[in-house]
Structures are given as C-alpha cells and as structure tokens.
Amino acid sequence: MSAFEQNGKKITNVEAVSHDGDEIIDVELFVREKKPIPPGKKYQIRIDKGHYVVDVPHMTGEQILSLAGKTSAGYLLSKKVGGQMLPVGANETVDFTAPGVERFATVPKEVQEGEGPVRADFTMLEEDIEYLNSKGYTWEAIAQADVKRVVLREFEPPQGFTPAKVDAFVILPHGYPDAQIDMVYFHPPLARVDGVGIRSLITNDFEGKTWQGWSRHRTANSTWRQGIDNLATHMMLVDDFLTAELSK
To answer: What is the pLDDT of residue 106?
Structure first.
C-alpha cells in the first residue's frame, strides 16, 4: 500500500482502501457523465491504469506522481481535460473538483539504451524516438507508397480485449508534427472479451494483411495543438478510447 500525508490527510492506493461508509467520488466517471464534482468528499483518481483514493480536493503534480510511486525526476505528468492531454508541472496544483479534469498519464523521461528501431525508412522526431524507447516497444518506421507508418510490435491493449498482444500502427501525415495523427490500426483485429461488438471500424491493407482501423477522431474541443501534441500524446488518446470502448 502506498501512502503519504498532505496537510495531515492520508493519501492511499485505492486497492487498499477499506470502504467505511464515506462517499468516494470517481472523478473519471463523473467527468464522463458530465456531473459536477462535489467538494468535501474522498476522490478516486486514475493515473495510467491505476486508481487511487484521496481525501483532499487538490494535489501538486509531484504528489500525484508519488501516488503511483514515481517522481518528476523520472516522469512527465499529463492530465486529460476536454479530450486533450495537457502537461502538469511538478509544482502545479490540480483541483479534482474543477470541471473537466478526467484522469492522469505518465511518460518516462529516461530512454532505454538499445539499437533503435528494427527498421527505419525515414527520420523520426527525437521526442518520438525517446517516447517509443521509453515504453520498451519494438518498433519500426516504415515508408511505403508515400505513406509513413510507425509500427509497434506486440502492443498490449487494455485488459478486456483479445488478443492480449497485437501489432499496431499509426500513420504520420504529411506535415507532421504540425499536422495531426489520426486513428490507429491493429493486427490481428481486436475483439472484446465479453463478445460485445465494436463499432466504427475500417480496414487498411499493409504487409500483405488486412488491418483493423479504429475510426476515432478529435473533435472541435480536442483539436491538435502544434508544438505540444505528438506521437506520445496521440497514444495516450488511443489508450483512452480503447478503455472507453470497454464501458459501452
């Protein structure tokens, strides 16, 4: 169990919390259902795939990282607000009762030493290479017929999908990083373990195989931000809409 004190109040991993009758507000659920978040409660927040309960209405970025056993020395923190992933500074205070703060994600600052991509047909942005290596992906940068793809081998979708590991790719459009990345493609195709069908799928032929494309797009409230958004923030959104699919 991870825990620390903030102003005399205990911050605890949700998996170790004993429900003692106090109401716990699931911040992610309330935001998705567009419900106002009441003050003076305990709050369950999501960091990456973990859930944590706190009994304070606000914390700094450093304190949020600490919940997940991480520090700002080794990790960057982002918050999802209105469909966008926004950076959170170590000393920046986040109010859990503020409208729209849905969840948090971390990205390691350090990269693993290695040989780089298995295949590199084009030059990748340094920040994208750092992200891919930090996640431990086996990846390739493949250019075919004037289409640039970043392929992740043995990508692991959230629990609730089958297969447990698939290959995935995104297409880098002309003009990236000023132009936005859109959608994601999988092979073998993903299916829900519970058998519920997945809507808004397309196909894309690549490597002699038919890949499953997820037709998920940014809205007017979550437009691509030049100079901020990149492969890392797009993959955070991929994780988010995959997770959201399981609750439909």
So the answer is: 84
**Residue 8 pLDDT:** 36
The domain defined by 3-108 carries CATH number 3.20.20: no
- pLDDT, tens only, 140-167: 999 998 999 999 999 999 999 999 999 9
Contact 47, 78 (CB under 8 A): no
Tokens of 129: 């290479």
Give yes or no for a contact between 225 and 178, defined as CB atoms under 8 angstroms apart. Answer: no
Give pTM, 2 decimals: 0.62
Find, among 218, 206, 79, 75, the residue nearest to 151 by Cα. 206
Q: Report CA torsion sign: 108, 114, 118, 123.
A: positive
Residue appearing with tokens 């990748």? 124
pLDDT confidence tier of residue 12, bands split at 50, 70 and 90: very low
DSSP calls for 180-235: PP--EEEESPPEETT-----SEEEEEETTEEEEEE-----TTS---TTT--HHHHH
Domain extent listing, the chain: 3-108, 119-245
